[in-house]
Amino acid sequence: MGHDPWSELRDRAERVRRSIESELRVTAPGILQEAPADHGLFALAAHAWAKELRESPASIAARASRVKPVAPFAPLHHEGPYVNFTVDPAPFAELVLTAVRTDGETYGSSPARKERVLLEHTSANPTGPLHVGRARNPFLGDALVRLLRTAGYRVTSEYLVNDIGRQMVLLYWAVNHLPSDPSDSEERVEYRYVKLYQKASAMLEGNEALKHEIEQLTQRFEGGDVQLTKDIRNVGEAILGGILETLRRVNVTYDSFFWESDAILDGSVQRVVERLMP
Is there a contact between 196 and 174 (Cβ–Cβ < 8 Å)? Predict the structure, then answer.
């Protein structure tokens, strides 16, 4: 973080405090604290100097409030034993705008933290193009990623690719068994594939032979058939490429991708099942 208007404001308030102590000729340092919302930004209590000056805190505060503050503070005012600091909006706005111009996109960033954050978002199924039902998720997720990074966290944004299950098997079957409409040849692949998926889904109604074929493929797929998994992933990757192209148009990108099928291929799922068995 380069320029922090709040820290700068605090530093300038401390300068005013030291000027007050010099004017009063006291040796004990006063304590600057944040004031209640309706009493300014900072407050300086005069109690610490009462014994040294042999004067009431209220009287000391009245004298202290006559010290001229530095910008962006307005003239000091006292209430009882307190000297209150308020901000003049115009010079404070100039202070903030200077920091924004200097720091640019890093303005407001916090120092780096040691904590890591894995944030998974959007993760639309790779069975068709990104649709309006999913359209809000990239904006929410990416906003969280940016906010956490600005807050200093080490963030990894991840896309969870749900490439297992009956829907992916049906899509794979449709792409390999159904002809594409020649009129769709200019469309992006995810738009062509989702039409084939919809046709295959409609064909399942009342078609017991097709249902059985899909079930058999699903069992092989989820059982860890390496070649079938690769073939199905190729279909999913083609659609995911189109989804990511759409997301890049709104400046949403990812650091990593986790394919659910990897958990089957590397034996993770089977090991968990075995541990859960009585």
Answer: yes
